[in-house]
Structures are given as structure tokens and as C-alpha cells.
Design a protein that fits this description.
The complex is a heterodimer of chains A (143) and B (594). With 143 residues, chain A is of the alpha/beta class. Chain A has helices spanning 27-39, 50-60, 76-86, 104-112, 125-137; strands at 19-23, 43-47, 64-67, 91-96, 117-120. The model of chain B is unreliable at 582-594 (pLDDT under 50). Classes of the chains: A alpha/beta (143), B alpha+beta (594).
């Protein structure tokens, strides 16, 4: 694909040294996000289910959580609620194939301030990075 | 016969018949007077007659007393004779007690009849009238007996009804008329309704008399009118009902068939009257109805059944029947009443609900499919984007390529499973399958893994094979899925107990585990596609939905009974292949089908 420029060549370095928790039950997704975050200089850990994600939030207090909507032990949005109880100021970005962009469930969660953004799977690296930057730049408070 | 002295009343001569009849000896009688034969009460009145030489009437009836005190009636004919110088009377007496008795009985009977009775002769004169007639018509016997009919009945009745002609007709034809109605309103009295009959009395070949019987049926008529109104009301309820109301005799032959039944089936009553009720139902429904009917002849009973009913235009309509016994006063079954509700509209409604449920299920499924397929697609997409970069190490390049390949393969296999679920394998692949053999194969397949997981597999099987019509590989897949689920539910080990038995016309197979069980709120979701509680990478939630689909393809059913913490039992019901020979025919048929 001629003219394809990797996103991290053009972006501001706002993701540098940011600490991101990836929550997804698919290890290949974790692999992809881990590599992508590495490329933009963010630090990354991942959790394959809700319980370990909660544990990771308590232990590491990440700046951002990339959250899948369906987990083996709980629903992603329920996990979002729980994460918010543990760390109220945390930014949550849902990355999932379970919903679509104008999905009423997602719109409601955004309106409530439960989540700060949504990216559909499959995603382009540029749009995901853009979304992460936007989320980290904005003040995300519960409505 | 005897001769007696008109002066002294003394017997002058008696014959043997007289002594025999009265019980006296000849010597005793010759010492008696004629008056001594008469009852004391009659003696005075008779003395006048006794003095008369001969009688004015050719025959007279006297009451006499025998020696033993019993009374007898005698008909006498007297004539004056001279015996020497003595004026005497020759009396010939005939014992008329029997005749008198018959007359008495006749009178008694006539008076006992609760109807008004007139005996008429050919000249339409009243020969006798019973007490009921005299009382009802407020007449006395003397003003009635011997009178002509037109003197006894009001002229208007006779002329309006042509009564005299009717009676004459009976005299000539000798045929009785029965149960005719006569309405009469006497001045100032409410209208009365009578029922009358004219019966010929034959003597030899000739009708000498007729009996005219008259009943006042005013009350009965009014009551009948009320009953008729009530009946009409009940009939109109049955007729106006929107449900079919069919009554049959005890054999199930149709007695009545209301308007709804006509409308629903298109058959008018005339075409089904007397026909077996079962004939109007589909064979399965008919068999169940037959069973209900045969059971229904004893004991308390009512039953509900659904069957398709034949319509005149060659179609069928689904009907829900409630059948009840009709019983008589002795609680004996005399027939059946079947009330049938047309389920066509309900079925349409159910279908709509089903459609909307399908849509809802499709919504759930769509999310599941989206999640499951977009995840590997996202991996492939991401890996491909890495590959597009300039500075990719050869090691990372091959890692990315592998992720692309695996992601696409994963998405594709999910789609294949979906297709398998949505498009069942055709019937033609079905053969007679011994369920037990298939269970053994599935058990063998998983034996090693079970041993490693410390799971014991027990089987409780009958000795005879249990055959069903099915696709062996699909049925095996059901068992493997069920066993895997059971083993997953018992990470610490446990027991899987598999039992199979014949249950009526079905094979019943149970797979019970001693695992963690399923929460009640999850039990009705476990067969939904993409519903899973399995840990990551262990399943995508299609196993049980595929089981459900396969069992459904085999015209069976599968369900679960589970107690959290104690274990789950999956019960599968498949139709038993009753006649193994039949399957060959079925298979042949299916081979020929396109």
C-alpha cells in the first residue's frame, strides 16, 4: 500500500510513558495491542478476565483501560462500573466487536460518563491511537 | 226355577238348579217363602212386585241371599200360572252375579281413568260416561247417558273440529285417531286445551262402539311451552357459540353439530349426521379421541386434546377439543359432548410471537456473531497493518503473517459452525442407529481425557439395542459435546453417569454429572448460540446450541435439570425406531427424493 505511514510517525507524543491496561479474553488481541502500544511508547499490561483486570487496576492504577465488551466472567460494561468504584478518575475506552458505533448501549454509557470512548473491532491503528489520545486529553467525569 | 203361591209367598215347587244355587235342600226351600230369599233391606219394596202377577219388564234383576249369607244377583222372568186352585207364579231365575261383577269392574275402571271417557254407539249416542267426564262437564248421568253427542257437547266445538265426522270415520275405518288437540274457551273461563283420542271397539268385524277419550292438557301445554322456550334458549346458546359444539352417541357417531362447526368445517349438519366423529379429525387426533372416548365410558371423566379437523374444501384447521361425558339420571354414560375451539387465529398469533422471539434471538445472536468474528478479524487486521510498515523484522513479519492466517481461519470456522447450526444435514443421511453403540464410541473417544481429569464414566444401559433414525456422526457430536461440558463442569474430577432406556415410543438418554451445576437464571439460556461460561479459549458457546439443533433435526428434545453445587442432568428424548424393517423403506424413499 503506497503512501502508508505508520500512525506513530505523525502523532504527538502524548501517549509516551502512559500506562495502559488491556482487558480482552482473546490473547491475540492482547498481542496486537501490546505491540501497538509499545510502538507509541506506552507501557502496557493485560488481563484476560474481569477479576484479574480489577486486580490489575488496584495494583497498578493505570491511566487508561482498553476494555472488551464480553468477558468470560462478566460483561465489559459491568466491569467498567467496578473499575470506576476502585479508581474513579480512570479513563475507559471500549474496544469491541460486540457493539456498533451508534449502538444505544454505547451511547448510554458515553452519556453517563461510564466510558470515555468507543472503538469498533476491527480497528485501524491510527483511529485507535487517535481515540486513546483524545480520551487521555479530555477530562472524563461521570455525569 | 220355582213356583210359588202368590197369596202366601210359599214355594210350591223348586227344581234342582234352584236348590243347588241357593244352598238349601228341597225340603228346606219348600218350607220357606219367596221373600225370605230377599235381603231384609229390599223386602219391603219388593213385596209390591211380588204381588204382581207377572212383570212389566221382561227381565228384572233381584238381589237374593244364599243359605250361607252371600249375596247373588239374579235376573228373573215371571209368569202367572195356576196350580190347582191356587194362583201361583212361575219364576225362572238366572244367576247374574258374574255379569253384575263385570259391570261393577267396568264402572270402577271407567271412573278410575283420569281422562274423560264417553262410550258412543253408531248413532253417536252416549252409552256410558265416566265420573271424570261428568265432573269436568258438570253434568249428571241422566242428562248424559242415552243423549246424542250434540246434546252433550257445545255445538261450536263439534262443528269447528268436525268431531262428529271424525267419530263416524272411526266407525267406518276402524282406525283409531290419537293425540289430537282441541282448544275451547267457555264464556268467562280461561282457554283450555284438550287432547282427545277416538278408539274403535270391535265386536266381530263390526265397530259397534267407540271410546271418546278427552284429556285436559292445558297445564301440560303451558309447561311444554315453557320447556320449549327453555330448549330454544339453550339451543340458541349452542347455536350462537363461536366454539364448535358436537354431541355424539357412545360409539362416537355425531348426534348434533352446531353452526360454528358448520362454519369452521364447511360441512352442513346433514352431511355429518350419524357419521363417526373421529372421521372428521386427522389420524393422530382421531386415535387420541378414540382413546379418550373408550376411557370415558367409566368413571368421572373429561379430557382435552388438540387435533386438526378436516374442512370441506380439503384443508385442515387446528382445533382444541374438550370432551365430556353425557350422563343420564343413573350416571351412566349415554354419549359425549365435544367443544372445539378453532386455533387458527391463536396459531397465527403464536407464529407472530415466535417470529418476534426469533428476531430477539437474532439480535442476541447477531451480537454474539459480531463479537466472535470481529475479534479474529481485528487481530488479522492489526497484524496486516504491522506488516505494512517498513521496518519489520523478519521474525515479527512471520509472527504477523501467522496471526493473519489464524485469525481468518478462526473467523471461518465460526461461520462454518453457524452454517451447521442453521442448515441441518438432510434426512437422507439418516439410518437406523443404535444409540448405545454411539454412546460407547463417544465414551471411548474421551476416555483418556476423562482419566486425566479424574472423571469416572458410568453407563446404565438395557441389554437390547435402542434404535433411532438418525445421522450417526451428528448424534455422536451431541454426546461428545455433552460429555465435554460435563467434564468442564468438574475440574476437580467427578462422575458422569449415562443412562438410556425405552420410554413409551421414545428413547430417553440421560447424561448426569456431579459438577458445579448451572444457576437457575442461566438454565434457559444455555442452548442459545454464543452463550458460554467457559473460560477464554475453551469455547465460544455453540456446543449446546448445536446439540439442540441436532436433536431437533432428529425430531427429539433436549433439556436440562440442574442444581448449583450438585450437578446437572441433560435429558435427551429421541423417537424410537419401532420397526427396524421400516427404516429401510424410509431410507429408500429418501434416496429417491431429490
Amino acid at each position: 500500500m503506497p503512501g502508508f505511514t505508520p500512525p506513530w510517525r505523525t502523532i504527538k507524543m502524548s501517549l509516551l510513558d502512559r500506562f495502559v491496561l488491556v482487558v480482552d479474553d482473546d490473547s491475540d488481541i492482547c498481542w496486537a495491542l501490546h505491540h501497538l502500544l509499545g510502538k507509541v511508547g506506552a507501557r502496557c499490561i493485560w488481563a484476560l478476565d474481569g477479576q484479574s483486570a480489577l486486580e490489575a487496576v488496584r495494583l497498578h492504577n493505570p491511566d487508561l483501560v482498553l476494555l472488551d465488551a464480553k468477558l468470560p466472567d462478566m460483561n465489559g460494561l459491568d466491569l467498567g462500573e467496578k473499575i470506576r468504584c476502585v479508581a474513579p478518575g480512570i479513563r475507559i475506552l471500549v474496544v469491541s466487536g460486540y457493539f456498533y458505533k451508534d449502538d444505544p448501549v454505547i451511547q448510554a454509557a458515553l452519556a453517563q460518563g461510564l466510558i470515555c470512548g468507543f472503538v469498533e473491532k476491527p480497528f485501524s491503528h491510527a483511529s485507535l491511537i487517535g481515540a486513546m489520545e483524545a480520551v487521555l486529553g479530555q477530562a472524563c467525569q461521570r455525569a | 226355577m220355582w213356583i210359588w203361591d202368590l197369596q202366601t209367598f210359599a214355594f210350591l215347587a223348586v227344581n234342582d238348579a234352584a236348590t243347588e244355587c241357593y244352598g238349601y235342600s228341597r225340603k228346606e226351600m219348600l218350607a220357606m217363602t219367596v221373600t225370605q230369599l230377599h235381603l231384609q233391606s229390599d223386602a219391603a219394596s219388593l213385596s209390591y212386585l211380588l204381588r204382581m202377577p207377572g212383570s212389566s219388564e221382561p227381565r228384572e234383576t233381584w238381589r237374593h241371599r244364599r243359605k250361607d249369607g252371600t249375596v247373588l244377583f239374579v235376573e228373573v222372568v215371571r209368569s202367572a200360572v195356576r196350580v190347582g186352585d191356587v194362583n201361583a207364579c212361575l219364576t225362572i231365575a238366572i244367576d247374574a252375579s258374574e255379569k253384575k261383577r263385570s259391570e261393577g269392574i267396568y264402572r270402577c275402571l271407567m271412573d278410575a281413568i283420569p281422562s274423560s271417557v264417553l262410550l258412543l254407539d253408531q248413532k253417536l249416542r252416549v252409552v256410558s260416561a265416566n265420573r271424570n267426564f261428568l265432573e269436568k262437564s258438570r253434568r249428571i248421568a241422566d242428562a248424559t247417558i242415552g243423549k246424542r253427542l250434540k246434546e252433550v257437547f257445545p255445538e261450536i266445538i263439534l262443528s269447528e273440529m268436525g268431531l262428529e265426522q271424525q267419530i263416524r270415520d272411526v266407525f267406518t275405518s276402524s282406525c283409531p285417531t290419537q293425540g289430537k288437540r282441541l282448544t275451547y274457551r267457555a264464556p268467562g273461563v280461561p282457554i283450555r286445551v284438550y287432547s282427545y283420542s277416538v278408539l274403535p271397539l270391535n265386536w266381530g268385524d263390526k265397530v259397534e262402539n267407540v271410546l271418546f277419550l278427552l284429556d285436559d292438557v292445558t297445564e301440560r301445554t303451558l309447561l311444554g311451552e315453557e320447556i320449549r322456550l327453555m330448549e330454544r334458549h339453550l339451543a340458541s346458546i349452542v347455536e350462537s357459540a363461536s366454539d364448535m359444539v358436537v354431541s355424539t352417541d357412545i360409539q362416537g357417531n355425531i348426534l348434533t353439530w352446531n353452526r360454528a362447526a358448520q362454519v369452521i368445517t364447511g360441512y352442513p349438519f346433514a352431511e355429518v349426521k350419524g357419521q363417526p366423529f373421529f372421521d372428521s379429525c386427522d389420524p393422530t387426533g382421531a386415535a387420541s379421541l378414540r382413546k379418550l372416548f373408550s376411557r370415558g365410558t367409566t368413571g368421572e371423566y373429561s379430557g382435552r386434546i388438540e387435533s386438526d379437523v378436516k374442512t370441506k374444501n380439503g384443508g385442515w384447521r387446528p382445533v382444541s377439543w374438550v370432551v365430556s361425558r353425557m350422563i343420564d339420571d343413573n350416571r351412566r354414560t349415554v354419549g359425549f359432548v365435544a367443544v372445539g375451539r378453532d386455533l387458527t387465529e391463536q396459531r397465527k398469533f403464536e407464529l407472530q410471537i415466535l417470529e418476534s422471539q426469533k428476531l430477539a434471538a437474532l439480535g442476541v445472536m447477531a451480537r454474539g456473531i459480531a463479537h466472535e468474528i470481529r475479534t479474529p478479524l481485528a487481530v488479522a487486521s492489526s497484524a496486516a497493518q504491522f506488516l505494512l510498515e517498513d521496518d519489520v523484522s523478519s521474525e515479527f513479519r512471520s509472527e504477523c503473517a501467522e496471526k493473519v492466517y489464524r485469525g481468518i481461519h478462526k473467523a471461518s470456522s465460526i461461520i462454518e459452525n453457524l452454517l451447521r447450526f442453521a442448515h441441518p444435514s438432510p434426512d437422507r443421511n439418516k439410518t437406523a442407529v443404535d444409540i448405545l453403540g454411539i454412546v460407547y464410541e463417544a465414551v471411548t473417544f474421551l476416555e483418556n481425557q476423562a482419566r486425566i481429569q479424574n472423571v469416572e464414566i458410568r453407563t446404565v444401559f438395557p441389554e437390547e439395542p435402542l434404535r433411532v433414525l438418525g445421522v450417526p456422526s451428528l448424534i455422536e457430536q451431541v454426546f461428545i459435546n455433552l460429555f465435554l461440558n460435563a467434564m468442564n463442569a468438574m475440574p476437580e474430577g467427578g462422575t458422569i453417569c449415562i443412562s438410556a432406556e425405552q420410554n413409551g415410543s421414545d428413547v430417553l438418554i440421560r447424561v448426569a454429572d456431579t459438577g458445579e451445576g448451572i444457576r437457575p437464571e442461566d438454565q434457559d439460556k444455555i442452548f442459545d448460540p454464543f452463550y458460554t461460561k467457559a473460560p477464554p479459549g475453551k469455547g465460544i458457546g455453540l456446543g449446546l446450541s448445536i446439540c439442540y439443533s441436532i436433536v431437533d433435526q432428529h425430531r427429539g428434545a433436549i433439556g436440562v435439570d440442574s442444581q448449583p453445587g450438585k450437578g446437572s442432568t441433560f435429558t435427551m428424548r429421541l423417537p424410537l425406531l419401532q420397526d427396524a424393517g421400516l427404516y429401510a423403506a424410509v431410507a429408500d424413499d429418501q434416496d429417491e427424493s431429490p
